[in-house]
Amino acid sequence: MQLSSRVAIVTGGGQGIGKAIALKLASYGADVAVVDVNLEKAEEVAKEIKNMGRRAMALKVDVVSTKETEDMAEKVYKELEAIHILVNNAGITKDGLILRMKEEDWDAVMNVNLKGAFNCTKAALKYMTKMKWGRVVNIASVVGVMGNAGQANYAASKAGLIGLTKTIAREFASRNITSNAVAPGFIETAMTDSLSDKVKEDLLKQIPLGRLGGANDVAMGVLFLSSNASNYITGHVLNINGGMVMQ
User: Fold this and answer.
1) How far lies 224's CA from each of 1, 2, 114, 151, 236, in Å?
2) Is residue 154 annotated as a catalytic residue, yes or no?
3) Which of 28, 77, 127, 154 is catalytic?
């Protein structure tokens, strides 16, 4: 699964799962553009990657903006001289039950999670086709597969992302570009750390493996789908959820 000579873009790469993905790809040889709305955090991750001996750049990008994503792809291609891998990880949540959900909360989540992935993919594919090799990896979610009360906007955005993933797979297979998604389950984050013991206990009962996942579990899945090890896989949703949802 070596990625030597490959150039990757990771959106939402300044922290959490995105940071783990950026560092994982770099550790296997990729040069990485770390994209985030928080430039300071993106720069910190880019610095870590440079300390590994890889090339890296940090970019502040609002993925909802078509112009900013087009500029992002152009800058990466000019500075790192290629775009081979795109990981659409940028995402937000604004949870609430449907009857209480504000229209602006629906729109914000759909814009970042789904339109943002569309914008970045469209911008990057222009250069992947030049390389005649590409990997698009979208970070979906277990709730995009099974739904979740209180997350109508988030679940819909992630289900839409799965549909987008499969469409890209069909449109670009002839260009030697694959498109796959990773659907993480419950992953250990600052948010899950704040849950009560009772909530955690109830949560773990839903997971056959009996534990929450880690950011590294997700990063390893992305690494696989970004590499030559997955040459004959496209349009696939890789569930990384400890058995919570089985397809």
Assistant:
1) 6, 10, 23, 29, 12
2) yes
3) 154
